[in-house]
Fold this protein.
Amino acid sequence: LFKNLNTILSNFSDLYCVISGVDDISLLNEYHISENYYERIRYKIFSPDEMKMIYKISSVTCLVCQDGFGMPAIESLASGTPVIATDNGPFTEILEENSSTFIYSDLCIESFINKLKEALKTDKSRFEMKSLLTEKEIKMFSEEYVADQYMMFIKMAIQHSNRFLL
């Protein structure tokens, strides 16, 4: 999507972008982003607490990287913010298109722009979006539950690796 940022911003006059994981303007130069749009783009490597705030205040979260765990999607939805994700990568394994999740064709910028328009029109309150999650899903994606699952996985991996260290 970076290479199409000029096209995206030209289609949305009041859209501001927050790019996480980037702390260098060279990205904007590398993709020949028009200087006219620089004031509408913020980029930085954010702390987990900053990301929680960003999810809560954002209109939509656009996932463009190949995050294998899908945590940004889960955190965004848990904050009541709709998600737009590519159909190419791991996100399709945990997300399906519905009123708060929009899947776009990775090969077509028009697909992304249409999904973004759709997501921005979805003017549901954050509470309505949270109500789409069942009690079980809310528990499954809580920080405590996910941390417990990681710890259980690490313990199992250590136990299994000890079998082969004899």
The chain has nine helices and five strands. The CA atoms of residues 51 and 145 lie 19 Å apart.
